[in-house]
Each structure stands twice: as structure tokens, then as C-alpha cells.
Write a structure and sequence with these properties.
2 copies of one chain form a homodimer.
Chain A lengths: L14 H27 L2 H8 L3 H8 L2 H18 L10 H18 L1 H12 L6 H24 L8 H17 L1 H8 L6 H18 L24
Helix pairs in contact in A: 1-2, 1-4, 1-6, 2-3, 5-8, 5-10
The structure holds a DNA duplex (18 and 18 nucleotides).
DNA sequence: GTCTATACAAGGATAGAC
DNA sequence: GTCTATCCTTGTATAGAC
């Protein structure tokens, strides 16, 4: 960014690719280390080793440990915001809630480290995310909550507290990323595959929709392929 | 333990009370610090300051940072086990699930720091709890799962995957301790009071029971006081 | 632009004074 | 039994060699 595009002296040339590659390696490694040990517990040394780079290289690229951490948090918030599209009273409750649960599950599944990074930040009292939680996110929740209330008034779902409902969806989906170690320990699996994820998504969708008495205003109820699991899936 | 009960020379006498008081202070302080920063991120220094004792005093009483941490984990597992009573097919599904959700909420509410300590441990890959997760806890889950399955066979509830159901209850209740910072940020509250906790418990009970088609084999359905919240409870 | 060498604070743990 | 002083490691960050 600081370099003119067509400088007379072009010393950094093939280094652009190196830089991009190194930055990527650092970000990926750091997300894992921060997720695992929290901000304080993570050491630049450990991040550097995971990225297979010298320690000072990490600081050279990222400026400081804190800058790196904040950058990762921002990246995760960006991913998060990407699936927070607007909804209106006119939308179909069943469809909206189904899509909500599905996307949230996918986010946790695609970015488990980022998910845990976020969790660790909140667990520690959210020192870097106070503003976000009290501002942007709160407004988003209130907007959705108002729509849920209107649906309830129109008899499209039970009159449940919409905020608790949002928390229910967040927590139950987030669980599979944040508590992965527990999930794997109990199920005896090495990892959850796509089939597991689909089954869990179907289960959560079913319970939430039925539990809140959500009506589909379209044709058939959107109850996805009946999640009556066929075989017990432990070790 | 190393001291004979009736030694001729009884040098430690009035110190017993001091010791008990100091140990208690350390355990309370350490639980908070470990919960907030994880095992690595927590420093003995910070724990000592929170307990208002010199650093080496903490190590003197507890032996080492790791011993202190393990002790706190064990204490939390003990609290946890205390509410894991046995159930049988003969029990009433609605009652059992209601009690389950209620107790789990109470545990998170009474011991939020312990709850977060546990969460941080799992988030970090559960290095100290591998055995517990793969052994004791797994067996407990399997036992309960079998009962849920039998209930489903008898038509007392829908044939949902019992393991996902247990995870749903764990995650949705745990959320209010672990993600407290987020919950407070979004609701605009300073803290959740007893009324909030009761309302949330009622909401979760309702959604889970209804969502899983749980039948009460007794008289009236155990739907606790209808949780149709009356007033929006944000700031 | 990259990395080795180093500065200086904070980490866990212990020896020894009181 | 308690706490000060100290050891050695590890932490973040930077200066300067290449």
C-alpha cells in the first residue's frame, strides 16, 4: 500500500507473494493459538512456531501481539456480519429460522478456530468487544426480536421471548465448535463429518421450530428429512 | 495430614483458621482468574493479588500453579456430578427433563466462575479432562441416552437423537454463564437476577419439551407458568 | 525485506530469613 | 508457618546485521 505501483526502483517484486503467504500463515496459526489459550495465554513464540516463521517475523508483519489479535477478531466479526441479513415481518418464519440455524452451523463448522477465538474473548469478559456487543450486535438483535414479536402477534409462532430464542440458537450451534473436545470425547469420534453436521442441523431446526410453535405460511411444513437417526453413532 | 493428631508439641494451633481462610480466598480468586484467562493466561501473581496474599503464599498453600488448577477443576466436576442422578425408563420424561434443565441452570448460576473455568478448559482442547470426557462423562451420557430412546419407543417423546438433545440442554443453559458478557451487553443489563433466570429456565423447558414432543404420563402437562413474557426487558 | 541478537519486564518456583 | 529475596525461564518488543 505504501509502495507506488510503478516505482523506478522495484526492489520488492517477487516478495509480494511471499508476504501474502507469510501473512496468511501467521493469521491461520494465530487464530488457532489464540483460540486455544486466550489472549494472554497465547505467546508470539508459539504462534511463530505454528506458522513456521521466526518470532520477530510475526511482529514485523503484524506490528504487535495486540494488533494481530484485534485483526483476527475483526475478521471473525466480518464473517459473522456476512450472514446477518435483514428480515421483515413479511418473510416466512419457518424459512427464516431454518436458514438462520443452518448458516450459523455452517459458520461454526467452517471457522471453528475463529468461533473459539470469539468464545475465549467473551469468556474473558469481552475486553476488546464491549463496543460491538453493546452497539452493533445489540441493535441487530433488537431488530430481529421485533420481527419475532410481530410474527407471534400474527399467530405465526408462540409468544416466546425473542432474545432468549436468539441466544438458544446461538448457543446450541456454537456448542459444536467451542466444546468440540467434549463432543468428540463423548461421541468417541475423531471429528464430526458433513453427515453429522447435517443431522445436528436438522435436529436443532426441528426442535426449535416445533418448540416455538412456528407455522409455515407456505404449503407443506418445512420439516427437513425426518431426523429420526437410524443407528446410534458412538464409537 | 502429616501432623499427628495429638502431637506433644502443638505449634500450629490458632493457625488452622487462618489456613482455612487463606485457602478459601485463594480458591475463590483462582477460579475467577483461571476462568477469565485460561490456564496459561492466568498468572500466580494475579491470583495472589486477587486473594490479597503474597505470591509465594499461594504456591506454599497449593504447591504449584498446576496443582491449584487441577484442584479447581476437580471441585467443579464434583459439583457437576452432584446433580447427575440416575434415571430409569419408569420415570416421567417431562419431570426428568424439566429437573435436568432447572438444575443445570442453577449450577451455572451459582458457580459462574467454575462454569467458565470448565468452558476455558474445553475450549483449549481439554488437556486435563481427556480421561473424564472419554470415560465417566461418556458413560453417563450413554446411560441417559438409552433411557431417552426407550421413552421414544414407548411413544413418550419424539425419536430424536438423545445425545444431541443432551448437548442442546447443556449448551443452552451453559450459555448464560459462559457468554455472560455477551448476554449483558445485548440485554443492556448489569446482571441477570432471579426473575430472569426463572424466565429463561421456563423458556428453555418449554421449547425443549414441546420441541421433542415430550408427553407427561401424569395428569396435566407440566408446562410451567406460561413464559409469555409480558414486557420487553431491555435497558 | 528478513532474521539474529538482545533488552528488559514478568512468569513460576524455591531458599532462607523471620 | 509466613514472607522477602532471588533464580532462571519465558514473555514482548526492538535494534541492527545481513
Amino acid at each position: 500500500m505504501t509502495q507506488p505501483t510503478s516505482a523506478v526502483k522495484t526492489p520488492p517484486r517477487r516478495n509480494d507473494a511471499t508476504r501474502a503467504r507469510n501473512e496468511q500463515a501467521i493469521l491461520t496459526a494465530a487464530e488457532r493459538i489464540f483460540a486455544r489459550h486466550g489472549y494472554r495465554g497465547a505467546s508470539v513464540q508459539a504462534i511463530a512456531e505454528a506458522a513456521e516463521l521466526p518470532k520477530s517475523n510475526v511482529l514485523y508483519y503484524m506490528g504487535s501481539k495486540q494488533a494481530l489479535y484485534v485483526r483476527l477478531l475483526a475478521r471473525m466479526m466480518k464473517r459473522w456480519n456476512a450472514l446477518l441479513d435483514d428480515i421483515s415481518v413479511e418473510d416466512d418464519p419457518a424459512e427464516v429460522l431454518t436458514a438462520f440455524i443452518e448458516r450459523k452451523m455452517q459458520l461454526s463448522r467452517r471457522h471453528p478456530e475463529g468461533s473459539r477465538l470469539f468464545a475465549a474473548e467473551i469468556l474473558g469478559g469481552a475486553p476488546f468487544l464491549q463496543e460491538y456487543l453493546h452497539g452493533e450486535l445489540r441493535e441487530w438483535v433488537e431488530g430481529r426480536a421485533r420481527v419475532f414479536e410481530q410474527w407471534a402477534e400474527r399467530g405465526l409462532m408462540d409468544p416466546v421471548n425473542p432474545v432468549w430464542l436468539i441466544f438458544l440458537i446461538w448457543s446450541s450451534t456454537q456448542h459444536y465448535a467451542d466444546f468440540e473436545a467434549q463432543v468428540l470425547g463423548i461421541t468417541g469420534k475423531d471429528a464430526l463429518d458433513d453427515a453429522d453436521t447435517e443431522e445436528i442441523t436438522a435436529f436443532l431446526t426441528r426442535v426449535v421450530l416445533k418448540g416455538c410453535g412456528v407455522q409455515s405460511r407456505q404449503k407443506a411444513p418445512p420439516e427437513r428429512k425426518m431426523p429420526s437417526y437410524s443407528v446410534r453413532n458412538d464409537a
